Amino acid sequence: MQNTNRVDPGQLSRRDTVISILIIGMLFFIFGFVTWVNAILIPYFKIACELTNFQSYLVAFAFYISYFIMSVPSSYLLKAVGFKKGIMLGFWTMALGAAIFVPAAFTRTYEVFLLGLFTIGLGLAVLQTAANPYITILGPKESAAQRISIMGICNKGAGIIAPLIFAAVILKPTDSTLFAQLQHMAGDAKEAALDELIRRVITPYSVVAIVLFLLGLLVRYSPLPDIDTEKEEGAVAAANAGKKTIFGFPHLILGAVAIFLHVGTQVVAIDTIIGYATSMHIPLMEAKTFPSYTLFVTICGYMLGIVTIPKLLSQVNALRICTLLGALFTVGIIYMRGEVRLLGHTADVSIWFVVLLGFANSLVWAGIWPLALDGLGRFTKLGGSLMIMGLSGNAMLPPLYGYFADHYDVRHAYWVLFPCYLYLIFYAFYGHKIRHWTPVARSLKVYPEKELHGTEKV
């Protein structure tokens, strides 16, 4: 049965709005912690399960392909059981996925680990489908990027500490020696060493499963209001009168493609940097810090967005700047060479361009969401589901990077990012303005309202 106890976000008191932002911020922290721990899982599984680059990046594929499968069903689930019950079920699904790690570790079966990651991703898809449209409309349109940036800090803040905490739990100071010895081991001795390595994930993921289960109960009985995400203002309702499906909104469809490519570039920058560092003969115990550097500069970008948007910088101009920087930094990874010493690391300068991709990616998500959902009205929830489906870009780009890394080299594999940034530049400068698929329809446009950044829609 559809939940009818919904409130207009404009009717929420300041106190209720702040409480809602805090609770959604907690959700984004959980998203980040569970998601970005993959940065250490990928090289760890590569060693413990004896994988190629391509096989190891199936961690990202299994985790994120669930968004493609579950995002649209999630919107119907949330309509059927309500916002808070849906979030509870999402947390419980994630808890089940974390629990699957236990039998996977006992048998050292990579496919079962992938099943666990896929299940965690299913639960996350429900949470993302609920949380992203919610925070987008929980306040004025022009400050949506600011609110999303705050959520980004929660997400990436968790991402900074997740790989470090996980590495501290499963890695030992003597592991660098063990990893070197594994190359010369064989038979039962090697199997025993690999079994001991992989079983270290049992305790942390058992704890994660319990925490996720309890968080589901916490949100279910929290004061989080079930707001109406599909309310249409008069002008929007008139403009959407002839729209039957979400495919009548080009700026949404193009935005979903933009999200697909953006998240792919983001996860490649974070999940591949340890492997790139180890290719420079940096030990895993040292390389584990590089994802945190990338996420730290991402948070710096978020904080800059919070301070400058919308007072000093419109969210669309922030999006344009970031997409241009992404293309520039990608070229820097490929062509800039030379060893530098920074933050205690001696490495090729190109790795710091990978780190800087975190800054370039920081305001892209926050810029795309309000532009893509603008004017959707009653289609907002389904449009949000389509945007969440775009998170499957995280599933596609890392294995593609791994394929090129295996067949060429880890540096030139970063070329996969360049066409992605070119499309994001297109969307930032033009694609988000398109309101009709054909030139004739564009000449008859009926959107009188001012756009988020004051330019004309086409």
Automatic annotation (TrEMBL):
Subcellular location(s) of the protein: Cell inner membrane
Known function: Intake of glucose and galactose.
Protein family: Belongs to the major facilitator superfamily. FHS transporter (TC 2.A.1.7) family.
GO molecular function: D-glucose transmembrane transporter activity; galactose transmembrane transporter activity
GO cellular component: plasma membrane
Protein name, entry field: Sugar MFS transporter
Keyword GTP-binding: no
Pfam family, one: MFS_1
Record-linked InterPro entries: Glc/Gal_transptr_bac, MFS, MFS_trans_sf, MFS_TsgA-like
Keywords: Cell membrane, Membrane, Transmembrane, Transmembrane helix
